[in-house]
Amino acid sequence: METWIEQHATLLQVGVSLATLLIWIFYAQLLFASYRRVRRPKIVINQMMGHSDKARFMISNMSQEAIHIDKVLVCMGTGDDCVYQQVTDIDPDQEAKREDPKSMLSAKLNEVTVQGPLEAGKCIELGAFQNLLDRIGRQQNQKAGDAGQTDSLPNCDAVGNGAECRVEIIVIAVYSSEKGVIGASRAFVCQEDGLLRPENVQTTQHAGFFARRRMARLHEQYV
Q1: Which among 202, 203, 170, 190 has a CA at the least distance from the CA of 69?
Q2: How many CA atoms lie within 13 Å of 129's alpha carbon, on the beta-carbon side?
Q3: Residue 221 CB: number of other CB atoms within 10 A?
Q4: Quick check: 4 pLDDT over 50?
């Protein structure tokens, strides 16, 4: 046995070196994956308070660091019939109904907009589904009226009356020292029975190169 080891000592040393190298590569991969997981932004868009038209949407920051929410868009419909509307700030109609217009000047920022920094582990409410639907419907009808057209939200003007409506919430944000913007989106479908349910189990994170370019294009449209 000792003679065999002496004869193949060089080969054994090469084998041990390769095994050691593979072990180091394995641990380096684990460390890199852990680092990427810590540095990767994660925004969660969730539905709460039931499945009716009174259900509310919540945006949570599950990243390791704070994010800065810049824009929140709601997309109604699918394909060519898709309508985008920005819902970052308070509904202008609600603002007009305030008894004291000066109260807007003294209101806190989190009462009039969702734009701004959101710390890790914190959440912010976007509003009820029906309120968002009514708000976007008014804005869309106003735009159509200004253009001399008659328009309505695609498949969303008869929710709860046998019509199915798809709503996608898109959050565009800035994360830490990352260049450009990141984003997250999640779609919800109001079914024919009037129940609102998420289309996917998880929130889609738009942190890749091409996804971030799409978020940047949307951001430029609504600056």
Answers
A1: 170
A2: 28
A3: 11
A4: yes
Q: Are 73 and 172 within 8 A, CB to CB?
A: yes
Contacts of 172 (CB under 8 A, 6+ apart): 69, 70, 71, 72, 73, 181, 182, 183, 215, 218, 219
Whole-angstrom distance, CA of residue 145 vs CA of residue 195: 31
Q: Band the pLDDT of 187: cuts 50, 70, 90.
A: very high
C-beta of residue 183 within 8 angstroms of C-beta of residue 63: no
72 pLDDT band, cuts 50/70/90, is: very high
CA distance 129 to 216: 26
Helices (H), 83-208: 92-96, 103-106, 109-112, 129-146
Instruction: Quote helix, strand, coil % in the chain, to nearest 5.
Output: 40, 30, 35
E-state strands within the chain? 43-48, 56-61, 67-76, 83-86, 116-118, 123-128, 165-175, 182-190, 196-198, 204-206
d(CA 86, CA 132): 10
**Residues 93, 165, 200, CA angle at the centre, nearest 5°?**
110
106's CB contacts (< 8 A; 6+ apart) are: none
- Angle at the Cα of 18 from the Cα atoms of 16 and 20, rounded to 5 degrees: 70
pLDDT at 204 over 80: yes
The structure tokens 């565009």 sit at 172
Please tell me the predicted confidence (pLDDT) of residue 207.
83
